[in-house]
Each structure stands twice: as structure tokens, then as C-alpha cells.
From TrEMBL:
It holds the Pfam family FGGY_N. The keyword Transferase applies. Residues 10-148 form the Carbohydrate kinase FGGY N-terminal domain. Belongs to the FGGY kinase family. GO terms for biological process: glycerol metabolic process; glycerol-3-phosphate biosynthetic process; triglyceride metabolic process. Its EC number is 2.7.1.30. It comes from the Eukaryota. GO terms for molecular function: glycerol kinase activity. GO terms for cellular component: mitochondrion. This is Glycerol kinase. It is an enzyme of class 2 (transferase).
């Protein structure tokens, strides 16, 4: 099989401290990758935020960097047939419906600013596990809903 006939899979790994883009061959071996770190903001004790635009830019930079490396190995981006994404899941940000711009910094999954609200919800529900039969998880500061 010539290099131009090969197919590849891309993966965006957008995490708490960095974004990576990895390109895998059909055997699951990493062919090219690029990682971009970025900073957290700690406005108050227990608060963990990120600039949403910096998150997006870090993903874009990681993709471009990995594709440059991929191209230098003699491959074309068109050979990447699919891209999977793994991300921070419970990190939360709201966007302006008209402009598409973020309204605030993203509140990161491990931020605990809502601990008083969570205590109140647990008291009202009678148990932290009140909704576990529905969503499989206890009421906690981890979830996006209490951050909103």
C-alpha cells in the first residue's frame, strides 16, 4: 500500500491543562501529534476558570501542529477519515446567542464555587444520591447544571 492509500484517525484530547491532537494509523499507532498547554485562572479559593477562546485556540493550534508533522511525513490531511473528541465534560461556559461570544470564562469541572448550592440541594432532596437512579451520579459541584 502506498502512503497516499493509507487512512488515519484523528483524536482531539481537550483536557484540563492542555489540548492535544493525535493522528493514528489503522493499527492504533500514533503517527503524529501536537500538544498545547494553557493556564487556569483562580479568581478565588476553589474557583477554577479558563478563557474559552484560549481553549478553542489551543485545539486549533494542536490540530495545525499535528497536521504539519503529518504532512512532513509525506501524508495529507485528507487521509484522516474521522476525528474523535474527548473533553472535560463538566466544564461549563455560556455563549451569547446573537454574537456567539462567551459570556464569561469557562467554569472548570473541578471548580467548587457551588458547594453551598449543592448542600442546599442535597438537604432539599434528602440525599446526595436522590437522582442517582436517573443519572447514575450523586448531587455534587462537579455537574454543569449547578454551575449554570
Amino acid at each position: 500500500m502506498s502512503p497516499s492509500d493509507q487512512v488515519f484517525v484523528g483524536a482531539i484530547d481537550q483536557g484540563t491543562s492542555s489540548s492535544r491532537f493525535l493522528i493514528f494509523d489503522v493499527k492504533g499507532q500514533i503517527v503524529a501529534s501536537h500538544q498545547v498547554e494553557y493556564q487556569n485562572f483562580y479568581a478565588k479559593a476553589g474557583w477554577v476558570e479558563k478563557d474559552p477562546n484560549e481553549i478553542l485556540e489551543s485545539v486549533e493550534t494542536a490540530v495545525v501542529g499535528a497536521c504539519r508533522r503529518f504532512n512532513s511525513l509525506g501524508f495529507e490531511a485528507s487521509q484522516i477519515k474521522t476525528v474523535g473528541i474527548t473533553n472535560q465534560r463538566e466544564t461549563t461556559v455560556a455563549f451569547d446567542v446573537e454574537t456567539g461570544e462567551p459570556l464569561t470564562n469557562a467554569i472548570i469541572w473541578n471548580d467548587v464555587r457551588t458547594k453551598e448550592l449543592v448542600r442546599k440541594l442535597i438537604d432539599e432532596a434528602g440525599s446526595a444520591s436522590r437522582f442517582a437512579s436517573i443519572n447514575g451520579l450523586p448531587i455534587t459541584t462537579y455537574f454543569s447544571a449547578v454551575k449554570m
